[in-house]
Amino acid sequence: MEGGYAYPTLDEPFLGTAAAGWDDGARGIRPPGARATGGMTAEEVAEALRLTRDFLIASNPAAAVVRGGHPQRALVKTRGDMAFEKGEGDGEVVVRADHTFVHPLVQTHPGAEDVTHTVVRRRLAVSLMDPDLWEVTPGTLRVIESRPEIVNAGCDTADGFIHPVFPSDLLGRTPSPAVTGFDPYDRDREIPDAPDAPC
């Protein structure tokens, strides 16, 4: 602890962050209880919720933290909400999910102790449709909306990797107003159409 503030460490990578008390990985993706809606049975709604959860797990927490390319365990903190509603027509249920995933990252060179975080918020809307009423493949989701926001990923390099900023990178530099005035952990904030958050 320095100056009364707890900084993340290699052993406690979420220390001092808003995500410290969040759930680990997939435990933070909790679907609500299913009930019949929109001409879909409770079992069909439960399937839609399960497929949505499986999709979020496969596309987000599985990435985890990479330590030299060989992660030993999945270290991701997750918080979010999931709900469902009737679709535009009979035989359709829409699932809406809004989750934030916090990935701790470390440098790979020997002796590095810096820990930083990439924060990914994802708002997703999908639907499951009755194949007896719609021309769809049974058991598949239709994506209605997928709106991501990624903070501290280095969006100026298009090489397929993230390039986060570490605390040591900021020594002697004054953070920009956009960085100091932006809270990536604020889940009450709307995700803008054209995100202007620092990446």
Automatic annotation (TrEMBL):
It comes from Streptomyces fradiae ATCC 10745 = DSM 40063. It comes from the Bacteria. This is Uncharacterized protein. Residues 176-199 are annotated as: Disordered.
